């Protein structure tokens, strides 16, 4: 059974600071996804990481994937209040499909 | 362009009542379709997926069922709702040539 673990589950940080969210998964997979969820809303796709060593950046967020370590990171640079949300990582449980197993999510609060 | 529609957006139903949630996708053909649920204490969980008309696979045993009467229509149903069916239901699709799944806006179901 595929397991996806995120940490931390809760993160309170000041504006301007940097931090990293970690996502570990238990079985081999070459595809990892990061989503953002605002309260009461659906999932917004942030990054799709499709191979070992993949690194993607969008604004203050950067995601990377190490398939050998079964680890992905989401790095936040110089946080701003607008980044407050819950962030999920997800992994395909079966090759060739998008049957995703999600982590429990990291609730990020950026404090002015 | 492709779009996904879910309705209703919000639903309050009494215990023991039936349920029907609908999801339709526009602008693509032969999509894979998925129902996910986000519930307190259980995180985001894949409930059903479908690779074609009439083809439904269930990931977890539950009080719910799914049907795919048309290529781009996916329906989630229950004959008698339980309190534990409360949650945020998300429909998603993917298709050939896409490297990720796309989520609908969700239906928030409260069983009272």
Structure description:
- The complex is a heterodimer of chains A (112) and B (112).
- Chain A is built from no helices and 11 strands.
- Chain A is mostly beta strands.
- In chain A, strands 2, 4, 5, 9, 10 and 11 form a 6-stranded mixed β-sheet that branches. A 5-stranded antiparallel β-sheet of chain A has the order 1-3-8-7-6, with no helix packed on it.
- The N and C termini of chain A lie far apart (41 Å).
- Chain B is mainly beta and 112 residues long.
- In chain B, the strands form 2 sheets. In chain B, strands 2, 4, 5, 6, 9, 10 and 11 form a 7-stranded mixed β-sheet that branches.
- The radius of gyration of chain B is 13 Å and the shape is globular.
- Chains A and B meet through strand 5 and strand 10 of A and strand 4, strand 5, strand 9 and strand 10 of B.
Topology:
The complex is a heterodimer of chains A (112) and B (112).
Chain A (H helix, E strand, L loop, with lengths): L3 E4 L2 E5 L4 E7 L6 E6 L5 E7 L5 E4 L2 E6 L4 E6 L8 E8 L7 E3 L3 E6 L1
Chain B lengths: L2 E5 L2 E4 L5 E8 L5 E8 L3 E10 L2 E4 L6 E6 L2 E6 L8 E8 L7 E2 L3 E5 L1
Keywords for this structure?
heterodimer; A: 112 residues; mainly beta; globular; B: 112 residues; seven-stranded mixed β-sheet
If helices are DSSP runs of H or I spanning 4 or more residues, what is the number of helices of chain B? 0
* Total of DSSP H or I helical runs spanning 4+ residues of chain A: 0
Distance between the termini of chain B: 38 Å
| Low-confidence sequence ranges of chain B | none
Mean pLDDT of chain A: 93
Approximately how much beta-strand content do the residues of chain A carry?
over 45%
- Please trace the helix and strand order of chain B, writing H or E for each element: EEEEEEEEEEE
Report the order of strands and helices of chain A. Answer: EEEEEEEEEEE
**Largest interface between protein chains, with number of residues from each side:** A-B, 21 and 21 residues
Principal-axis shape of chain B equals globular
Query: Pairing-aware structural class of the strands and helices of chain B?
Result: mainly beta
Which of globular, elongated, flat, extended, rod-shaped describes the shape of chain A?
A: globular
Distance between the termini of chain A: 41 Å
Q: Helix fraction of chain B?
A: under 10%
């Amino acid at each position: 059974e595929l397991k996806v673990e995120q940490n931390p589950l809760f993160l309170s940080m000041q504006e301007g600071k940097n931090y990293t969210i970690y996502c570990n998964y238990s079985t081999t997979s070459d595809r990892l996804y990061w989503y953002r969820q605002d309260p009461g809303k659906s999932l917004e796709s942030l990054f799709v990481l499709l191979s070992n060593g993949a690194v993607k950046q969008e604004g203050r967020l950067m995601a990377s994937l190490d398939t050998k370590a079964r680890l992905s990171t989401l790095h936040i640079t110089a946080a701003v209040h607008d980044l407050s949300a819950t962030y999920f990582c997800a992994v395909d449980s079966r090759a060739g499909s998008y049957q995703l197993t999600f982590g429990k999510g990291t609730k990020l609060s950026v404090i002015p | 362009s492709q779009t996904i529609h879910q309705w209703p957006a919000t639903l309050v139903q009494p215990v023991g009542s039936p349920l029907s949630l609908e999801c339709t996708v526009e602008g693509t053909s032969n999509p894979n379709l998925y129902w996910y649920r986000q519930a307190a204490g259980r995180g985001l969980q894949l409930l059903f997926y479908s690779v074609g008309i009439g083809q439904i696979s269930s990931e977890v045993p539950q009080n719910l069922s799914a049907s795919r009467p048309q290529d781009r229509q996916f329906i989630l149903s229950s004959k008698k709702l339980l309190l534990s069916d409360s949650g945020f239901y998300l429909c998603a699709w993917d298709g050939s040539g896409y490297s990720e799944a796309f989520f609908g806006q969700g239906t928030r179901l409260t069983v009272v």
